[in-house]
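A quick aside before the break. I want you to see a complete sequence-to-structure record at least once, exactly as it would be stored in a machine-readable document. Don't worry about memorizing anything.
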Amino acid sequence: QVQLEESGGGLVQAGGSLRLACDTSRIFVRLNTMAWYRQAPGKQRELVASITTYGSTIYADFARGRFTISTDNAKNTVYLQMNSLKPEDTAVYYCNTDRGDLNWGQGTQVTVSS
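That is the input. The structure line, written in tokens, reads:
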């Protein structure tokens, strides 16, 4: 089955930025609302942001104003630009559809130090 591949995570100091990327070349993105999720240790996976095929976006309260989701259809990639990172943003970040109905990839680890 199709599995998405996330990249771009890493270790960053509080206040820093990262841009995550999700390779969607194996699915037809134009038919799906894509989303980024995250899961911190000991917590449930939560929605970070989503983007429709028309470019409409939705953000979780903690992401609004700091994170930006975007797509590059030519590159079959969904991005999550994360600015002003906080230690509480530390988590494994995943991409999937807004229904979470594709196989979950391994995610990309984001660690924010204080």
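Two observations worth writing down. The first strand starts at residue 5 and ends at 7. The CA atoms of residues 35 and 100 lie 8 Å apart. We'll return to this after the break.
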